[in-house]
């Protein structure tokens, strides 16, 4: 783990928004074992933090995240147990993002490649600077991006995912938006403004409803159509019993602003 003087990850919270910032620009914010451990711990803490409504995932430097630390991997070529532990931890972190009961927005400036692209795809939303670029280039070095493929293929169409995986070529931010990898592309000068306006908009909603909705969204994706409707019908009926649902409906009918619970 990093020392207290040299943290790999910075955490800052304000007005219901927690920003987690990868901060190892000299190593291209790579997902080393230590970085993944810090990120996993931070996500566990945020999940339990009742004050946090939205999470922003950002990075310092001109590279958002270059994927795994290849130097670390090279130094452990013959250590299969380490390699397996590394990829399992990375997979755990990606699932923590998906399972987090609060929305996660990726703020992407610079390059996001391999597991870094996986990190963007794993977030619920992504806003990119117009200079950002994305790739899953493992095929170029003989190490196919198999785990990044999981998140990528769940965000873009099969053919677009396969093109990225098989060619390993960088794509620009505009292309990433077209294929659904990111939500919005903006000038880098207004990237923060756009990201935090989106985060603020979501943070002002009912935390109860957002939590229920995010969990249901990912669960229904994996179900056949009829099962998805059966599941979401039950979710909505249960959601109707929540205090925020009752408050929201009454506020709408009474033409006033709702007062959401602190849960």
From TrEMBL:
GO terms for molecular function: hydro-lyase activity. SUPFAM superfamilies: ClpP/crotonase. InterPro entries: ClpP/crotonase-like_dom_sf, Enoyl-CoA_hydra/iso, Enoyl-CoA_hydra_C, Mitochondrial_ECH-domain. Keywords: Fatty acid metabolism, Lipid metabolism, Transit peptide. It comes from the Bacteria. Pfam families: ECH_1. One of its GO terms (biological process) is fatty acid metabolic process. May play a role in fatty acid biosynthesis and insulin sensitivity. Belongs to the enoyl-CoA hydratase/isomerase family. This is Enoyl-CoA hydratase domain-containing protein 3, mitochondrial. It comes from Marinobacter similis. The lineage of its organism: Bacteria, Pseudomonadati, Pseudomonadota, Gammaproteobacteria, Pseudomonadales.
